[in-house]
Specification:
Layout: E1 12-13, H1 16-22, E2 28-31, E3 34-48, E4 51-65, E5 78-85, E6 98-105, E7 118-125, E8 133-135, E9 138-145, E10 153-155, E11 173-174, H2 176-179, H3 186-195
Parallel strand pairs: 1-2, 2-3, 3-4, 4-5, 5-6, 6-7, 7-9, 8-10, 10-11
């Protein structure tokens, strides 16, 4: 799957307090800060080792490295061409969000809420997605690689042709709509059948 990378031509080192004063959130590089902003769009920037409190913030062409975005609200927001590397996103809410050309690499993503979300060209690589809810969402081209899905719930979400064979699906929960057409190996198939209440006779 080809994912479009963030389009960042240049960045300027800046303190978040200066960006807030100027109401300017484009083409900057911020490191080791506590960032609290709301009702805006971050564009064409890089964040390193920052901690965030965000509310109603959309993201375009952003790279996060070793950042803490736990319990952040991206509800009703657009995330486009973004990369999350080694980030904490536990408890983050993405209700009715749009994710397009997104990469999550080596992230802790437990307890996320993806209700009514839209995924298009999304890679989740070597992440812990345990106890996350993906409900009534639209999925177009999602790739899962070495993802932990313990007690992750997929509900009312069409997942046809999504490949789970390289991920840990122990304890995962599917409803009948979500399980249709997924790709699993024989061991995963048995576990999922038991989860759905199917009695297997050897």
């Amino acid at each position: 799957m080809k994912i479009n990378k963030p389009k960042i031509k240049y960045t300027e080192d800046i303190k978040i307090i200066d960006a807030i004063k100027e109401d300017y959130f484009t083409n900057f590089h911020i490191s080791d800060e506590n960032i609290e902003i709301s009702n805006t769009t971050l564009d064409s920037s890089i964040f390193d080792k920052d901690t965030f409190k965000l509310d109603n913030v959309s993201l375009i062409d952003i790279v996060f490295n070793d950042c803490d975005l736990s319990n952040v609200s991206f509800n009703n927001c657009f995330l486009t061409r973004c990369v999350f590397n080694n980030c904490k996103l536990s408890g983050t809410s993405l209700i009715n969000s749009n994710l397009e050309d997104i990469e999550f690499n080596n992230c802790v993503m437990k307890y996320l809420n993806f209700t009514d979300a839209k995924f298009e060209r999304v890679l989740i690589d070597n992440c812990d997605l345990s106890e996350t809810i993906i409900d009534n969402s639209t999925v177009k081209n999602i790739e899962l690689n070495k993802v932990k899905l313990y007690k992750t719930e997929f509900r009312n979400t069409k997942l046809e042709d999504v490949d789970f064979t390289n991920s840990d699906t122990y304890g995962v929960i599917f409803d009948m709509k979500s399980v249709k057409g997924i790709i699993v190996d024989s061991l995963q198939c048995r576990d999922i059948a038991l989860m759905l209440g199917i009695k297997i006779k050897d």
